[in-house]
Amino acid sequence: MSRLTLNRRRFLGTAAAGTAVLASPAYLRKAYAQGGEVNIWTYTNFVPDSFKEQFEAETGIKVNIRLVDDQGKQFNLLAAEAPNPTVDILTVAGHRFLQFIDSELLAPLDTDRLANWGNINPAFSESDWATIAGNKWGAPILSGMEVMSYNTEVVSEEEAQTWDTLFSDKYSKQTAYIIQDMMSIIMLKMGYDGNMVAYMDDPDKAAAIVEEAKAYLIEKKPLVRKYYDSGAEVQQMFVNQDIVVAHSWNGPAAALINDGFPLGMSIPKEGSYGFVYTYNIANNAPNADNAYTFLNAILGSPEIGAAMTKASGFISTYKGADQYLTDLEKKSTSFPEEQLANLQFFRAEANEMKYGLVDPAVEEIKAA
Amino acid sequence: MTRATRIFMSVIYWAFVVYVFVPLILMVVMGFKDSKFIGFPIRSWTLDWYTGVFSDTETLSVFGYSVVIAIASTAVSIFVGTWIAVLLDGRKFMGRAVIFGLTILPALVPGIISAIAFRIYARLLGIEPGMFAIIWSHAVHNVPFVTLVVIARLSTLPKSYTEAARDLGADPFVAFARVTLPYLMPAVIGASIFCLLLSFDDFVRSFFLGSYDPTLPVLIFAKLRSGMSPEINAIATVALVITAVLGIWAERSTRRLNKENA
Amino acid sequence: MTSEAASADHARTATAANAPETTDRTFWGRIVNWSPYRALVGLVYATPRRQFLILAVFPVLWVLTQHLGPMLQMARISLLDAYPPSPGVAPNFTFDNYARFFGESIFWMPFIRSLTFAATLSFATLIITYPVAYFLARHVSRNNRMFLLLLLLIPFWVGEIVRTYAIMILLGNNGAINLMLKWFGLIDRPIPFMYTGFSLSVGIIYLTALYMLLPLYSALEKLPKSYTEAAADLGAGAWTRFRRVTLPLTLEGIASGCTLVFLISTGFYATPVLLGGPSTTVFAETIAGFFHVAGDQWPTGAAFATIMFLTALVLTAVFNRLINALRKGETK
Q1: By CB neighbour count within 10 A (0-12 exposed, 13-18 middle, 19+ buried), where does B124 fall?
Q2: A355/C293 CB distance under 8 A
Q3: Which residue of A has its CA nearest to B115?
């Protein structure tokens, strides 16, 4: 990772600007004076090291980072700690908001306390999924999407424009996908709403759709090499040439591209889903004031957003972050407009019904 | 023993050695690959990943943290597990089967469940997440392995040994310390190896019961999010070398101590 | 000197040292003649009943509070209809989570598969490691033995995940083995080793071999050579000697190793998920699924875990009964 060149004056500048416009600057003065700490659960490199050092030096607030590796574990840990968590800020994938909110694990985000909220691209900060029950619940930092990734030495760009390639006889036993995610995409491919929000009043229809998607994946099971779970797995399968085309998240694929591997990515014409990682404040957070100070600071400059993108391969939600990326990094984190038009965001409203149907279906596909 | 069987046996042994060492060698070699991902082909080499392990003090302190946890939890498991084995061995009493069942219970529960159960119970007991909580969960989880290994050895201890000692006037404490315990030593060493290994490689309990300091597997899992990089291989290799050196040093010094005492 | 002889030796020195009349100046001598110690011994060993109670109280308290305690929490959760509880809604007690297991066959299959898998694995590990342990304990001179055993232990210290990825780059289409075969001109197209039963076995024997190897080694090591030699003198062939002498006398080690392997392999999760093919779901994965994927359902997961460990407990008990019966039968 290249070092951040966030200089001291610029940092002070944004911090000072923040103080000036904040509705209640008292808490900030308190934080500056008292120091204290802020506890964060996040993925590796989501808080750039140089930003962390600078933040600690400027504010006297110690940043404790606990690395998590998966949303499920983070949820379980927080649920086991509730109602008195040890954490202030956690990193939730946008489409899992609802689960955290329903269990009262998150506090609504008071965006008025974040002077730098406007630095986020409104496509993310004001998107429909971002507001639930009239509140904002998190500050978007990185955006991911479900893409088709392919070895460019074997698979052509034309072939990569349709999900059918993933199920073609030509690449039999050279494909891989995350089966839960694939269920949503198959539903979309069949012309249904993969978020299942449209069928919330019609559970029978929902069940029939899941059944249809399940039958399709069982029929195509002989062609798949591996149902996988983690980004590291799909990267390794490409490197080992065990597969040539896969469904994956864009972050792991971008990391391979940036390392010089002949990999391409596309959002196929049938469409796909996107999601956003957000920083959220835990309900009953022990250091809520410091958490706001931290969030405001990390939203301070597009350079910080670019540093997160370089480390993770996911797309920055900050306005103007791409000017700090190299050409290769830009290429691996952008898509043509016509492909982006095929993208929709995951929505959580129907999740209880959806996963009530999808989870058993996944079990049956694996067992088939 | 015929010559043919001897050769056959040694071929099997060395084949087994090759099997267990090949992945290890691949791991060490991949630590030198100049790329963010392990795998073939290796186009250029670098020492950066290895030197990085030593220049990043965090990695080394994480390793030290894991070692301390492994040793402390092993000590507790050995103490408790051996005591339970002594209680259960050769005695018939009401509830023996129940105690045996409860003893091996922690080994029967899949990792994620046991981790969450420990986390909830820790709060009930007022144990704060952190080093102590991790040591506690590892110790409890590893007790069954100690009891199973020790009891197997204990059951082969000829009664005549302890009886002879008792006949000659040794009280049971002394008979245990000077006859039973030395006899159990190989089993205790074996069980310690299991415990150290289980603790050192445990991810899920360490994650759920830990605080903001990661253990080695927790750090590796977090790093794995951005791909299996040569950096992880370098960290694992360095950890392995240090562990091996510590192990050999421990073995040497106990041998020396034994000689001095003898 | 075998460990038996060592212990017998200890027994002699111990008893010599502890005869009350001797004015022994050794460590143990001083201890046993120290009056508070003698008073304590007198108190503890007054009656066999008291002796037993004192021995039993700590283990019983430990297993009840440390082993049973956390699991009771899980068992309680398994009987609730919702956990973590939704705010403002008191959870109700229900057996539905257990009924769900027996009601849906898609859950039995990974369950049965896990148990057969664990049993097969125990047996396979036994077959593979027995010759290795036998070679070490019987064919290697005492001086080299420790070294060769320690040599075998080294690779097991590499973490499960790092090792599993090393196996991937060994067996992958572009992995070390395929590259080598291609180099020698033995193949044109890579052989797909990965994500098959083969790759799974390669990865998983790693996780179990050690737990089998050490108990077997310790059982074989104590077996006096004179036994098999005597059998040979009586004209027994190699196979008969093994079957009638070595095998019965190492049953204890076999039982111990198989139990250990069975116990740990029912909980395997990461390696089967990473190395197995699309059809190898193990039960631990099913259970973890209830905790991980979007529709988190702790109570169902907890109920399934309870079913799992009760079954494993019963199977372990039955297996150990069988071995005991077998041993008694052999020594008669």
Answers
A1: exposed
A2: yes
A3: A77
Confidence of residue C86 (pLDDT cuts 50, 70, 90): low
Measured between beta carbons, the chain C residues lying within 8 angstroms of A227 are 278
Peptide bond preceding B41 in cis form (omega within 30 of 0)? yes
Range of the domain at C233: 99-331
Q: How many C-beta atoms lie closer than 10 Å to residue B41's C-beta?
A: 9
**pLDDT tens-digit map of A252-271:** 999 899 888 999 999 999 99
User: In the CATH scheme, what is the homologous superfamily, with its name and number, of domain A145-272+348-367?
Assistant: Periplasmic binding protein-like II (3.40.190.10)
Q: Which residues of C touch B220 (CB under 8 A)?
A: 159, 161-162
Interface of A with B in 33-62 (CB under 8 A): 39, 43-45
Subunits adjacent to chain A (3 or more Cβ pairs under 8 Å): B, C
The partner residue sitting opposite B109, judged by closest CB among C17, C134, C305, is C305
- CATH 3.40.190.10 region(s) of chain A? 8-143+275-330, 145-272+348-367
In Å, what is the CA distance from A355 to each residue of A32, A75, A139, C250?
45, 16, 26, 51
What integer pLDDT is reported at residue C230 of this predicted model? 75
- The CA distance from C32 to B168, in Å, is 14
Domain contains B203: yes
What domain count does chain B have? 1
Chain centroid, CA B200 distance in Å: 6
Q: What is the pLDDT of residue C3?
A: 46
Share the mean pLDDT of chain B.
85
Closest CA of chain C from A226, distance in Å: 5
Which range of residues forms the domain containing residue B188? 48-261
Could you read off the pLDDT of B23-71 as tens digits, one per residue? 999 999 999 998 888 988 888 898 888 988 888 888 888 988 999 999 9
CB C139 within 8 A of CB B9: yes
Nearest CA in chain C to A232: C165
Establish if C176 belongs to a structural domain. Answer: yes
Task: Check CB contact under 8 Å for C215 and B102.
Answer: no
Split at pLDDT 50, 70, 90, the class of A4 is very low
Torsion of Cα atoms, A163 then A168 then A170 then A174, to 10°: 70
Tell me the two tokens of residue A206.
């929902």
Closest CB to B226: pick one of A44, A73, A86: A44
Residues A80 and A331 sit within 8 Å (Cβ to Cβ): no
Q: Any chain C CB within 8 A of the CB of A219? A: no
Nearest residue of chain B to residue C312 (CA atoms)? B108
CA distance C114 to A244: 31
- Residues of B within 8 A of C162 (CB-CB) are 27, 220, 232-233, 236
This prediction has a pTM of 0.82
Q: Kindly state whether residue B2 falls inside one of the protein's structural domains.
A: no
Phi, psi of A150, deg, nearest 5: -150, 150
Same domain, C123 and C249: yes
E strand or H helix at A364: helix A351-367
